[in-house]
Design a protein that fits this description.
Chain A folds into 2 domains: about 5-115 and about 300-315, Nucleotidyltransferase, domain 5; about 125-295, Nucleotidyltransferase, domain 5 (2-Layer Sandwich), CATH 3.30.420.40. Helices cover about 35% and strands about 20% of the residues of chain A. Chain A has 10 helices and 13 strands. The interface between A and B is large, with 48 and 48 residues.
Chain lengths: ~325, ~325
């Protein structure tokens, strides 16, 4: 029996470079992380250092996969990365392939996280799925017919950036009322601080010792679990905002599954139950069609590196071409 | 040299059944239409009658393709058709295949229209394109990697049904502020009547001889072409509504081309120019990426039947599998 094929997955973040040695079953064999050294080419040297550290003693390494927050084209050129200053049209894939001598894949980190979920996570075996990460922003990965949606240039699946309210809060991208601005993990914190400042969230204010500015989503979760009406109202309002975006995406993609990632899903059904309820109340033609399940993602914080490694292995194997 | 392969395309509408004999180049050889006879099975008999009329004298007919407004699943079962009462879970494909003895394809009419555009129309040869029809509602067809996006069940590409304004007008589907309710051809007429009723559209009121109720999009076009400021303001506002939805879809799909169909594109750049301007002002990362062209569709009112026939021919040929 042959040994499982092995790849290094790398997650390029604003503060750190996280690498993991991952086998084709998605198991993490070893991890290595370094602080982010700043712009290219220092970043390249740091990534190559992480890869070399991880491959030491490995008889055969088959591929390198990289996930990065930002706009990554089909050749693995990072056009723009919001958290890494100076990352403009950098040929990351070509450069790492040259430095390592290995087949290399670079993709958006939300896409690699989604790929991890369909290969070995919550959406295992599902051909049409959407994976949404509710965090600082909204990350989206769309899988159609088992392939990662990339679009004509690689910039597809920016699912946080459609308007749901023309007078909504400003998005990180500068537009008003984008879904990301109203339904990200950060948006929940903002909604809670606004409610507290307006005198509508006394239980949150109490938990934050009267300091509006320190209130975040964790206070909402804790107060809601304790049954505080003000927090439960915020949970419902926030879940509605999430659901309205999911409705649009389901009408557009008709997936069989929507997996939600992010700290909020650690709260079990606290957020998921009202998301499902609002979703079913607003999806097009609910009485005439199967509707997608909404379930928690399973891969956690390593989804990005594991998915990057699996994507690289599958593409080196001539499968999993981007769509 | 062999003769071109030939199919019958059929468009099932609320008032008529339109059929056309179409060859593999998209040329319409012959047309036949009958008044819609009402629900199934009368509708089946009418469709079979149209097909038989068209195939008379044709040495070899290769396939039948049907487009219908409504929710059509991957087996060609029409789950719901808004304009054809009683059309509930009708196995249209299987029934027509049995009656005609021919390979038969049934799809949503916006999908077949989009397929016509990428095969022989404005998006010829483009692999990632969106075709939007601005009419009574908004019809959308999404082509990814040359294939029609259908989703897990066949109900994908309902692109008119995502919320862009939580307090916007009610959509035909019952939801508030969907893109369709704010950017369809009908929405332009509604906006014009509202402006006239509010005393903000004197030039339209004059053209309609003082009757607010008869004002529609044609009055807006005519007055705008004549340079009336009130009409030009309406064109700009409407074009903004269209653009905001296109921005969302472009961020989600990253197409290389967006083709717009519907009566409005007969007005040349009157609507298209402000749509393009607002689109470029709001798309994500415009400075870091190629942005899709927005062009008029070319296939006109026969897009649906021609696309249905081409899709049927290509699928009978084992190509063009749905995505």
């Amino acid at each position: 029996m042959s040994s499982p094929r092995i790849a290094v997955g790398v997650d390029i973040g604003g503060t750190k470079v996280l690498g993991a040695l991952v086998d084709e079953t998605g198991a993490v064999l070893r991890e290595h992380r370094v602080l982010s050294p700043g712009p290219w080419p220092d970043m390249r040297d740091a990534i190559v250092g992480v890869i070399n550290e991880l491959r030491t003693g490995v008889p055969e390494l088959h591929a390198v996969g990289v996930g990065a927050a930002g706009m990554v084209d089909l050749d693995g050129v990072i056009h723009y990365a919001p958290n890494v200053p100076g990352f403009r049209r950098v040929p990351v894939r070509a450069s790492l392939a040259e430095a390592t001598g290995l087949p290399t894949t670079v993709d958006n980190d939300a896409n690699t996280a989604a790929y991890a979920e369909i290969r070995v996570g919550a959406a295992r075996g599902v051909r049409d799925a959407i994976v949404i990460t509710l965090g600082t922003g909204i990350g989206g990965g769309v899988i159609l017919g088992g392939r990662v949606l990339r679009g004509a240039n690689g910039f597809a699946a920016e699912v946080g950036h459609f308007q749901i309210d023309p007078v909504g809060p400003m998005c990180a991208c500068g537009e008003l009322g984008h879904w990301e601005a109203m339904a990200s993990g950060n948006a929940l914190g903002r909604m809670a601080r606004e409610a507290a400042a307006a005198g509508e969230a006394p239980s949150l204010l109490e938990r934050a010792h009267g300091k509006v500015d320190v209130i975040d989503g964790h206070h909402v979760s804790a107060a809601a679990h304790a049954g505080a009406a003000d927090a439960l109202a915020l949970v419902d309002h926030y879940a509605f905002n999430v659901a309205i975006g999911l409705v649009g995406l389901a009408n557009i993609f008709d997936p069989s599954l929507i997996a939600i990632a992010g700290g909020l899903v650690n709260d079990g059904d606290l957020f998921l139950e009202p998301m499902r309820r609002h979703f079913l109340g607003h999806i097009e033609g609910a009485q005439y069609r199967p509707t997608p399940e909404i379930i928690p993602a399973e891969m956690g914080e390593r989804a990005g590196v594991i998915g990057a490694a699996l994507l690289a292995l599958d593409r080196a194997n001539d499968a999993a071409a981007p769509l």
